[in-house]
Amino acid sequence: MDGAIHVLTGPTALPVPARGSVLVCRATDPNRTPLIALAGALVIDLGTPASHGAIIARELAIPCVIGTGDGTRLLTTGDRVHVDGSTGVVRVLQQATRSSGRREPPC
């Protein structure tokens, strides 16, 4: 699945991500399920295939790469990526403009 990244950095997600966005977060919990329902794919730093985010992704039939460890650090809202839940690969297609000027590697 190809899409634009929306990084969730805190317990609330303002602004609400666009439908079909690739949600990137440190972890998930049941309070984030309404946001996950909008997602086209998930990239989650912490967890296993038996974690909440992976289970919800399977129920919603959306790709999920879980256990990245540093997706929230390496990806920026606005990046375009390809998420392959079958292989566990997230490939950056196009980076958003970085205000800091630092180059960040793909995850």
Automatic annotation (TrEMBL):
Stated name of the protein: Phosphoenolpyruvate synthase/pyruvate phosphate dikinase
Keyword Lipoprotein attributed: no
The organism's place on the tree of life at top rank: Bacteria
Keywords, in A-Z order: Kinase, Pyruvate, Transferase
PANTHER family: PHOSPHOENOLPYRUVATE SYNTHASE-RELATED (PTHR43615), PPDK_N DOMAIN-CONTAINING PROTEIN (PTHR43615:SF1)
InterPro entries assigned to the protein according to its UniProt record, in alphabetical order: PEP-util_enz_mobile_dom, PEP_Utilizing_Enz, Phosphohistidine_dom_sf
Gene Ontology MF term list: kinase activity
SUPFAM superfamilies the record matches: Phosphohistidine domain (SSF52009)
Record-annotated PEP-utilising enzyme mobile domain positions: 19-88
Keyword Phosphoprotein on entry: no
Transmembrane segments: none
